[in-house]
């Protein structure tokens, strides 16, 4: 049996163990902090399964008036959404265990010179699930707060936003924000493949790779990575398993994301759009562009300095910060949902009823 890392000291092991154990404990705390209150509210029937308000029309709820509406008109609730987030938390824990298991193969312990390493596929799945959960919680939380404030008259400019969203230029801007969000998510996901394959140690220069903008095609599509005789898996295996190709893909996605962020920022400053967008939206577009600049600088620095852990961790945190800004930017362009209109109309009816009763006294 080969002794792996036999020269490691107790203090060095404690340092590695601390981060791994803290990560697991924090993950469990997050799960309990979400699932236990959710279960309590469901048992106490504080999360309604459906909402009805007799006499509502589709136009009052911002729906097309062409189709007939049942009376009372049912409205969506947060129950399925919250349940989906709870399932994602469970899936995230299961993926974490599945990922760690891939690095505990017996062959890694018996092969001389082998380094324990988790599967880049499972690492990317674990990160992707975490990001999806984060986006779901953040986006849902912002939406609920905005809807509640609007329904109770605390949000300003929503009516102007609804009118602005009918403008074609604003529609194009909103679509570009959606594309930008997908690009940020995909770029962060590609970073998991870079980390899983140590692809950041292949070409430690920028903007070139070996003195060229891209490595030779023979290196990017290396036949050695194909496992089928007909080479039908050549393309996708190189895209996901070849460190040179994986780093090149991450570079291309990062540059594309940066340029897209710059485009969204520039679009928000165009006179045809600037006058229609809420001030918060313009501030968030500027914030996203600023964070994109920081993220690019962190990525290049991490590469040039051979991926030191503090810089690599900062680069990963930067991707989450940029994703946060883009999610908030997209949320700032969201119209009030049907539930918000329900809350507002219910509040108005209650106020009118109270006024009538007071007049009769």
Automatic annotation (TrEMBL):
<keyword id="KW-0350">Heme biosynthesis</keyword>
<dbReference type="GO" id="GO:0046872">
    <property type="term" value="F:metal ion binding"/>
</dbReference>
<feature type="transmembrane region" description="Helical">
    <location>
        <begin position="81"/>
        <end position="100"/>
    </location>
</feature>
<comment type="pathway">
    <text>Porphyrin-containing compound metabolism; heme A biosynthesis; heme A from heme O: step 1/1.</text>
</comment>
<dbReference type="GO" id="GO:0120547">
    <property type="term" value="F:heme A synthase activity"/>
</dbReference>
<keyword id="KW-0408">Iron</keyword>
<keyword id="KW-0560">Oxidoreductase</keyword>
<dbReference type="GO" id="GO:0006784">
    <property type="term" value="P:heme A biosynthetic process"/>
</dbReference>
<dbReference type="GO" id="GO:0005743">
    <property type="term" value="C:mitochondrial inner membrane"/>
</dbReference>
<keyword id="KW-0812">Transmembrane</keyword>
<feature type="transmembrane region" description="Helical">
    <location>
        <begin position="177"/>
        <end position="197"/>
    </location>
</feature>
<dbReference type="Pfam" id="PF02628">
    <property type="entry name" value="COX15-CtaA"/>
</dbReference>
<dbReference type="GO" id="GO:0016653">
    <property type="term" value="F:oxidoreductase activity, acting on NAD(P)H, heme protein as acceptor"/>
</dbReference>
<feature type="transmembrane region" description="Helical">
    <location>
        <begin position="313"/>
        <end position="333"/>
    </location>
</feature>
<keyword id="KW-0472">Membrane</keyword>
<feature type="transmembrane region" description="Helical">
    <location>
        <begin position="120"/>
        <end position="145"/>
    </location>
</feature>
<keyword id="KW-1133">Transmembrane helix</keyword>
<dbReference type="InterPro" id="IPR023754">
    <property type="entry name" value="HemeA_Synthase_type2"/>
</dbReference>
<feature type="transmembrane region" description="Helical">
    <location>
        <begin position="286"/>
        <end position="307"/>
    </location>
</feature>
<keyword id="KW-0479">Metal-binding</keyword>
<feature type="transmembrane region" description="Helical">
    <location>
        <begin position="25"/>
        <end position="43"/>
    </location>
</feature>
<protein>
    <submittedName>
        <fullName>Electron transfer protein 1, mitochondrial</fullName>
    </submittedName>
</protein>
<dbReference type="InterPro" id="IPR003780">
    <property type="entry name" value="COX15/CtaA_fam"/>
</dbReference>
């Amino acid at each position: 049996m080969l002794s792996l890392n036999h020269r490691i000291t107790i203090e060095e092991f404690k340092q590695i163990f601390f981060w791994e154990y803290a990560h697991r404990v924090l993950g469990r705390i997050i799960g309990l902090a979400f699932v236990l209150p959710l279960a309590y509210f469901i048992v106490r029937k504080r999360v309604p399964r459906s909402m009805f308000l007799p006499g509502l029309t589709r136009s009052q709820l911002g729906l097309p008036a062409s189709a007939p509406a049942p009376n009372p008109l049912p409205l969506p609730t947060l129950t399925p959404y919250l349940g989906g987030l709870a399932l994602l938390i469970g899936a995230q824990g299961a993926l974490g265990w599945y990922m760690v298991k891939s690095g505990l193969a017996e062959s890694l312990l018996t092969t001389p010179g082998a380094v324990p390493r988790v599967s880049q596929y499972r690492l990317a799945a674990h990160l992707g699930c975490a990001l999806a959960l984060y986006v779901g919680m953040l986006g849902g939380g912002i939406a609920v707060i905005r809807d509640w404030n609007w329904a109770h008259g605390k949000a300003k400019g929503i009516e102007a936003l609804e009118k602005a969203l009918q403008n074609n230029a604003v529609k194009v801007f909103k679509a570009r924000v959606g594309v930008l969000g997908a690009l940020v998510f995909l770029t962060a996901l590609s970073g998991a493949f870079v980390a899983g394959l140590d692809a950041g140690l292949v070409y430690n220069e920028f903007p070139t790779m070996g003195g060229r903008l891209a490595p030779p095609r023979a290196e990017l599509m290396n036949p050695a990575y194909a496992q089928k005789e007909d080479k039908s898996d050549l393309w996708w295996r190189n895209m996901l398993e070849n460190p040179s190709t994986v780093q090149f893909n991450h570079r291309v996605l990062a540059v594309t994301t940066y340029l897209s962020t710059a485009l969204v920022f520039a679009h928000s400053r165009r006179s045809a759009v600037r006058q229609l967008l809420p001030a918060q939206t313009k501030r968030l577009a500027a914030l996203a562009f600023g964070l994109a600049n920081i993220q690019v600088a962190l990525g290049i620095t991490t590469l040039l300095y051979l991926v030191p852990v503090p810089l690599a961790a900062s680069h990963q945190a930067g991707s989450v910060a940029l994703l946060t800004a883009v999610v908030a930017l997209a949320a700032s362009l969201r119209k009030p949902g049907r539930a918000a209109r329900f809350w507002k109309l219910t509040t108005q009816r209650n106020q009118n009823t109270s006024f009538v009763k007071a007049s009769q006294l």
